[in-house]
Write a structure and sequence with these properties.
The complex is a heterodimer. By secondary structure, chain A is mostly beta strands. Helix content of chain A is about 0%, strand content about 55%. The model of chain A has no long low-confidence stretch (mean pLDDT about 90). Classes of the chains: A mainly beta, B mainly beta.
Chain lengths: ~110, ~120
């Protein structure tokens, strides 16, 4: 079975400060991991993905995430938050051997204040 | 190459009516997935289809819900005899291969309101 736990339902930061959104996963297989972002009333956009290549993954808009197998974590970071980063972020796990569905975490709402 | 297209973007139905949600995948994508998002929650998997076949419907309610992806035309998610609890955002995603091998691209969703 596969599952994803996003450890914070809400994170608030000031513009220009670092962002850390935490995600732990569980998978009986070698997982693929993704971070998606959803702006209000919009669809989902892929930020970055890990598919068993480099463990440090760089994505769009300055985001990156590190796959740590020993900690079963895939935390999302950004050195300096921008107002436009305010959105809902979803950590997602999938594994080809487990079937086909993307399993979503419950999401973390990121608020950015000026 | 247009992205995943879902229509309508907003749909209002009275209790007991039928709702039909359409999803046109990206060009070259033969894998389609439907997800439901309730307020304050993540996306819940409903069904995975490949052209003309249902591959996994483990997340689909047993009654009133059905999905198809015909050889020609969009994928359709059909909800019969809608109830208030069906009000949600329904997202479709597509990928060229199984989502376990590559990322899926999402549409903007259909927001269903049952009154």
């Amino acid at each position: 079975a596969q599952s994803v736990t996003q450890l914070d339902s809400h994170v608030s930061v000031s513009e220009g400060t670092p962002v850390l959104l935490r995600c732990n996963y569980s998978s009986s297989y070698s997982p693929s991991l993704f971070w998606y972002v959803q702006h209000p009333n919009k669809g989902l956009q892929l930020l970055l993905k890990y598919t068993s290549a480099a463990t440090l993954v760089k994505g769009i808009n300055g985001f990156e995430a590190e796959f740590k197998k020993s900690e079963t974590s895939f935390h999302l970071t950004k050195p300096s938050a921008h107002m436009s980063d305010a959105a809902e972020y979803f950590c997602v796990v999938s594994a080809r051997q487990a079937g086909t569905a993307l399993i979503f975490g419950k999401g973390t709402t990121l608020s950015v204040s000026s | 190459n247009a992205g995943v297209m879902q229509n309508p973007r907003h749909l209002v139905r009275r209790r007991g009516q039928e709702a039909r949600l359409r999803c046109s995948p990206m060009k070259g994508h033969s894998h389609v997935y439907w997800y439901r998002q309730l307020p304050e929650e993540g996306l819940k998997f409903m069904v995975y289809l490949q052209k003309e076949n249902i591959i996994d419907e483990s997340g689909m309610p047993k009654e009133r819900f059905s999905a198809e992806f015909p050889k020609e035309g969009p994928s359709i998610l059909r909800i019969q005899q809608v109830v208030r609890g069906d009000s949600a955002a329904y997202f479709c995603a597509s990928s060229p291969r199984s989502a376990g091998e590559t990322e899926a691209f999402f549409g903007q969703g259909t927001r269903l309101t049952v009154v």
